[in-house]
Each structure stands twice: as C-alpha cells, then as structure tokens.
Amino acid sequence: xxxxxxxxxxxxxxxxxxxxxxxxxxxxxxxxxxxxxxxxxxxxxxxxxxxxxxxxxxxxxxxxxxxxxxxxxxxxxxxxxxxxxxxxxxxxxxxxxxxxxxxxxxxxxxxxxxxxxxxxxxxxxxxxxxxxxxxxxxxxxxxxxxxxxxxxxxxxxxxxxxxxxxxxxxxxxxxxxxxxxxxxxxxxxxxxxxxxxxxxxxxxxxxxxxxxxxxxxxxxxxxxxxxxxxxxxx
Amino acid sequence: xxxxxxxxxxxxxxxxxxxxxxxxxxxxxxxxxxxxxxxxxxxxxxxxxxxxxxxxxxxxxxxxxxxxxxxxxxxxxxxxxxxxxxxxxxxxxxxxxxxxxxxxxxxxxxxxxxxxxxxxxxxxxxxxxxxxxxxxxxxxxxxxxxxxxxxxxxxxxxxxxxxxxxxxxxxxxxxxxxxxxxxxxxxxxxxxxxxxxxxxxxxxxxxxxxxxxxxxxxxxxxxxxxxxxxxxxxxxxxxxxxxxxxxxxxxxxxxxxxxxxxxxxxxxxxxxxxxxxxxxxxxxxxxxxxxxxxxxxxxxxxxxxxxxxxxxxxxxxxxxxxxx
Lengths: 234, 324
Ligand SMILES: Nc1ncnc2c1ncn2[C@@H]1O[C@H](COP(=O)(O)OP(=O)(O)OP(=O)(O)O)[C@@H](O)[C@H]1O
Ligand SMILES: [Mg+2]
What we know:
heterodimer; A: alpha/beta; Rossmann fold; 6-stranded mixed beta sheet; 4-stranded antiparallel beta sheet; 10 helices; B: mainly alpha; ABC transporter involved in vitamin B12 uptake, BtuC; 76% helix; globular; binds adenosine-5'-triphosphate; binds magnesium ion
C-alpha cells in the first residue's frame, strides 16, 4: 500500500532521515520504534507531506506521494494523527471532527462519518460541544484519532498516541488500535511504549539516528535481546 | 477561571469610566446631579457614539479576520476603505450609477483589492520577518494614497446624498445615515459570526487561525483559505466604505482619520480576537463621543488614546487576548 524507497529529509541544513526504505501492506499494522530524536516524527511528516522529501521515492497505492501537493495527500487515503494531538483548542469537539472531513468527498459523507466516530468514541458524543482544549489528555487523543478517521482513510498514521497518558488510558489506546484494524484500516504507528506496541502490530522498524537499523516481525523483535535491552529496559 | 475574571473586571471598569465620563463633568459644571442625568444632548452623544462604534466594529472585524488567519497586519486597511469610497463616489456622481448598484460594486472592488494585496504582495512575504511584512503593508498605505492623489486629486468629494435625520424624542435627532450604518454593520457582524460558526469554510477559517499546519493535514490548501479571508476582509472594507461615504467627504487621506483608531481597537481587543475587537470598538467610540460632548472632539480622542495606553500597561495582550 505504502512504499518508501531511499527517502531523505531534513530541516534547513540538518538532515534528519537518511535513505529510509519502508513498506506497509494493506491491512497490516506496522510500528516504527526508536530513541528520542531518531526521526520518527520526521518520517510521519514526510509521508503526509508536511515536510518535503529531499530524495527517494514514496508511493501510496501506486500514486507518487512526492509529486502530490501536501493538501492532496489526505485525498489519497492517508490520515495523520500528529504528535501532541494538535487539536484546534478553541473549537468544539464537533468542529474539530468537522475539520477532519474537510475534503469534499468526506464533507459529502459528514453525518455518516460523524456517527461512525461517535459510535467508536461515545465519550466524544457526550463532549461534542466542549472546547477541545479543555478535554483531558485521553479525550484529546480520542478526538485527534476521531478527527483523522473523519476523512475515511485507508492508512492511519499515529505518532505516539500514548504519550503523556495514564497507564489505564494507554491500554485503551492500544485496544483502540486493534479495533481500528478490525475496521479494515492499515496502521503505521510510532511508539515509545515498545513492549505494548509490539503486541498490537504485525511488523516493526527500528529507526536510529535517521536510519532504519532493523526490521522484522513483531514477535521476532520482541524476542530479540538487543531490542529488549535497549527499548524495553529488560 | 482567573483570566475570565480579569476580562469581566476590565469591562466593568470600562463601564464605570463611561458613567464617570458621562456625568461627572456636568456635575462639576452644574453642581447638580439631576441636571446631568436629564441632559438629553448627553444621551444624543451616547447614541451617536454607539452608532459610530458599529462602523468601527465592522472595520476592526475585517482587520482582525485577516490578521487571525494570515498573521499579517494590514497597515493599509483604511486606505482600502478610502479606495472603496472613491469607487462608489465616481460610479454614482460621475457615471450616474444608482447608489444601490454603486455600493455592491464598491464592495466588489475592495474585495478584489483585498485579493490582489494578498496575491501580489503578502503571499510572497509569508515567511519573511514580521517587520518586513509591516513595512510592505505600510508601503501599500502610501502607495494607495499616492495613487488616489494622482487619479482623483486632493479635492474633498462629497456624494451629495443626504438621508436627513429623524427625531427620536422631542429633542434628540438621529441621522438616518448613521443609523443605517449602525444597523448594516451590526447585521454584517452577525452574518460574519454565522458564517464563521455555521459553515464549513468559516469553521476552516477559524481553524487555520489556531493551527495553520494542521489544516494542511485536513486537506485544506492554505493559500486558498488565505485568499478567501483576504477577499472577505477587503469586502468588509468596501462595506464600511458604503457606510462612511454617506457621512464623510472622500479625499486621499481620509483613511488616516479612522485607520489609527481601527488599529487601536484591534490591539485593545486583542489582535485577531473578533469578540474583543467588537467590545473595544464600542468602548473607544463612547469615550470619543463623551469626551467630544463635554469638551472638544479632539479631547474625545485624547481620552480614547489615554485609555488605550493605560490599558496597554495593564493588559498588553488586549481585553480578550490570550497571554502567549
Ligand atoms: N522543525 C525542526 N527544525 C530543525 N530540526 C528539527 C525540527 N524538528 C525536528 N528536528 C530535528 O530532527 C531530528 C528528528 O526529530 P524527530 O522529531 O523526527 O524525532 P523523534 O524520533 O520523533 O523524537 P521523539 O521520540 O522525541 O518524538 C531531531 O534531531 C530534531 O532535533
Ligand atoms: Mg516524535
């Protein structure tokens, strides 16, 4: 579904990604793990067009992502739940969800999508008139995921959805990743909770200092001594 | 919660100031509260202040809309109003276009000017330092003034249309053109509010002013929303031109008589905050009206500026602004 080959990216004179090659197949859930500053967020931002790729190729279902203007990427079926949620804090939950359905195709299906998201997150329905900035951390994450789902994406990019949340809520978020997969969505997720994320994904990539160091099936990586030592503190 | 309290307090203080300014000078002069309270001309001045506030609110709304979305202050905003006034004046007085057609045409002209200002100038400066953006829109101010001087001369032009006035009570007369200006401005503020809160495009405009990068993720072309906001902002300047051309002469420097006050209103309300601007418009217009009634019109402006400066010390981010 999504393929990246030899992608380079950076900020100004600083190069954050070197020669990244990665693949996500339809129906899969794939994780990207790695230490702080490894370039995980940068990788997500390159895919959704927030920063340009400086080299390499990116395709989504055979369509060239590099040549697609940033605001057209969501039309290709990619929705990005950014790091730190980035809701519109002074707008209601429902208006935030409305913006998730901004593209014309999603706008036409707005009420159906809204119902879908409210079914998934009954809490969001209760809170629909509340300003997003006043939601609790967990609720904000639900709202951010709901907003991304409004565009009826095929591929969901999740950037550290569990960051800053209490353990119980973290459990719920990972549970949610399962539910979302059952809906037929493909998921690419960046996580610090390595142990937990490896239980919900099929495969994972290890990104270090801007390069893909390792990749493999989730169970394989979870069993690897190196991963256990470096990322699980075991 | 604490923040909301300060806002409420500020509005209470402004109201107190208003009452003091309204009655204290007369009490001191006449030594008699009864006289001050029953002074009908005082109420006429208050009503005129209210009516003036409507137009100022409209102007500050346009400026705030553009600032909120594009994050650039259009120093030349009042000059776009001036061009709109000229447009309406020439269409009507020169080419004999009926006023009811000339006015929408004027709004269209200024909407196109707003669009062009963004497309030709601002768009290329979005990543520049704020000072360069200010210099550019400040430069446009002189450019528009010079173009108007060259094209139309420095004569004061008057539409020559008088709507007259009507008696509200036996003693208080209200000018129709001021009332029409107020009602139109109020209707327009309400319309803009509905647009911003009830439509997809309006919601997107509010959203982009809160997080511009994320709207790209939602599939919005940033440039397009900027252009739409600039054109709406320009159109609001044109609407203000329709209302002002009925009351004031047009000349190339007419923008200077309400441009600075419009900026003060926006800053006092909290730059980019439309509700704050709306409240600030009425606070300043009442200060001007009451100062003008008890002393001279110039004193009215002195009070307004003094209040503004004092407020900048107390609350630099504006009445409804957020501390950043
Ligand atoms: N806007 C920016 N300008 C310059 N450098 C940046 C910018 N954003 C990120 N970087 C740098 O790029 C590198 C990768 O950052 P990135 O945010 O992708 O890391 P990350 O893996 O997501 O880290 P974390 O786990 O802390 O979220 C870092 O060295 C960071 O300092
Ligand atoms: Mg990150």
